[in-house]
Amino acid sequence: MTEDPSAADFDEWAEFAAQPEDTTTTQPTWLRVAVAVVVSAVVVGLILLWPGGETADRTALSVLGVPRSFHAANVTEVVSGPCPFQAEQECVNVTFELVEGPDADSRYIQAFPAGGTTPDFTVGQTAILSAREPDGVVVEGRPEPCEFDTELECRVLRVRLPDGDVIEVEVAPDNPAGNSFAGDELFLDLFDEGGEIVVFGVSTPTIESTYQFADFQRRPVLLILFLVLAAAVMAVGRRKGLLALGGLVISGAILLLFVVQGIVAGGSPLPIGVVGASAIALVTLYLAHGFNVESSVALLGVVGAILLTAALSAITLAVSNVTGFSSEETSLLTLFEDIQVTGLLLAGVVLGAAGALDDVAVTQAATVRELRAANPSLGAGELFRRGMSVGRDHIASTINTLFLAYAGASLPLLVLFVLSEQSLGAVANSEVVAIEIMRTIIGSIGLVATVPFTTWLAARATVSAREVSS
User: Fold this and answer.
1) Kind and range of the H or E element at 215?
2) Under a CB-based contact definition with an 8 Å cutoff, are residues 108 and 96 in contact?
3) Can you tell me the distance from the alpha carbon of 158 to that of 174, in angstroms, rounded to the nearest whole number?
4) How many CA atoms lie within 13 A of 367 on its CB side?
5) Model confidence over 331-347: pLDDT tens digits?
6) For residue 202, what is the enclosing H or E element?
7) Dihedrals φ, ψ of 369, to 5°?
8) pLDDT at 232 over 90
9) Closest Cα to residue 370, out of 9, 6, 22, 11?
């Protein structure tokens, strides 16, 4: 009976996969010292730059009406008819039933102009409604002659704001808010006049004035996708896959708790980005790959490339007159004096390239390790030469990956520029596109530099580790 070749191939692969990796744990002294310096610098950076004290004042966002609370609601009815605000125009009147929050089970109806950018609503969908939070609480009220007409009697309310300040608001006789008593909540229409918050309107909260459609519920889909990813990673990577997921969680925590909060607190984005990216590399490399020569070499390669990327970013953005106000999000951040918008771009370039740097560094260190394991007689020079042969192929594919990632994120914008019939030079010169080009080029330079640096370190460390262990 003839043996099935495919079964033999699978058995051979399974036997190879079951073999333990040759991860040398005996690290030469110079490598241990270098890693100790990097770890100490990261720890000191985390301590010195860790966010503390007061964060940026968020009053400016309240003035713009940016909501902070969101609640889920089910679509229970969709009816087409005349718009309540313009009878001759056709609208889609959607009834939402809140399923969470202080007004759960309450119904809210919102009219949307038919066509255009109005989403397609169907009964049974789950939507997300933004909830406007009260701007103040009534402390007390008293009658007084109106400022605009002394023959009329207005009601002056003393209102406590969320920050603890108490202001006085005059309410006209025909405004239902004038019937408010101590403890009642109010909506205040605010205006920032030269840094001073001015109240030009006051109203009592209602379902109609509190809620507004914001988006559709996508959290279940995101959860399913994450579970599929986790299952795939653990099925293929097994224990390393589980550790990689743990590293992903830690990376997210560092990004949110240190990087973002540090920038919001008024810290300099570039050093925060460098320390944050280095901390992420430190934790994820050792967590996923263990405390060995490979991980230590990869850490040094990543940190070195992060520093190079940060320096190139600072120089490039300084000489290119980038303002940082090319998007709506960054323009909103100009309302906060403590947040350095241009520095955000620098930190973004560093963090954007850090993940690719991690991949390149680990691959090169692992390549050198496997070359040495296959032929222990190879010296550092030959290991470097053969490792660079693999690294050149890796450079080509990774640079293309970076380019496609940034181009994909900017695809709608590129389509808009093409429709505007602008020249290629004009499109590339626009700040929003130029920034993406700079990110791609700077990240690619960091990748290119990582390959020879990490390969050289891995070759030296692998040979030195063998000598120490023998």
Assistant:
1) strand 211-216
2) yes
3) 18
4) 25
5) 677 667 777 777 888 88
6) strand 196-203
7) -60, -45
8) yes
9) 22
* SS3 label, residue 205: coil
Residue 429, token pair as written in the block: 């010169």
What integer pLDDT is reported at residue 21 of this predicted model? 47
Among 185-189, 191-195, 277-281, 371-375, name the most confident range. Answer: 277-281
Interatomic CA distance for residues 316 and 322, integer angstroms: 9
pLDDT for the residue 44: 95
Mean pLDDT along residues 52-74: 68
- Among 176, 174, 165, which Cα is nearest to 205's? 176
Average pLDDT for residues 87-103, to the nearest whole number?
90
| 85-113: burial string, b at 16+ Cβ within 10 Å, e else | eeeeeebbbbbbbbeebebeeeebebbbe
In the block, tokens 């840094």 appear at: 195
Residue position matching structure tokens 């003393």: 158
Q: What is the CA radius of gyration of the chain?
A: 30
Work out the pLDDT band at 465, boundaries 50, 70, 90: low
Q: What percent of the chain has pLDDT over 70?
A: 87
Residue 27 near residue 238, CB atoms below 8 Å: no
Per-residue tokens: 18: 């079951």
The single-letter DSSP state of residue 96 is E
CB-CB contact of 48 with 71 (8 Å): no
Structure tokens at 161: 């704001």
Q: Under DSSP, is residue 192 helix (H, G, I), strand (E, B) or coil?
A: strand
Residue with tokens 């963090």: 351
Q: Which two tokens stand for residue 36?
A: 């100790």
Q: Would the pTM count as exceeding 0.90?
A: no
Write out the two tokens for 12: 């051979």
User: In this structure, is the dihedral angle defined by the CA atoms of residues 221, 222, 223 and 229, taken in order, positive or negative?
Assistant: positive
The shares of helix, strand and coil residues in the chain, as percent rounded to the nearest 5, are: 55, 20, 25
pLDDT for res 408:
77
Q: Band the pLDDT of 58: cuts 50, 70, 90.
A: low
Strands of the 69-83 sheet, one edge to the other:
107-113, 86-98, 69-83, 126-131, 211-216
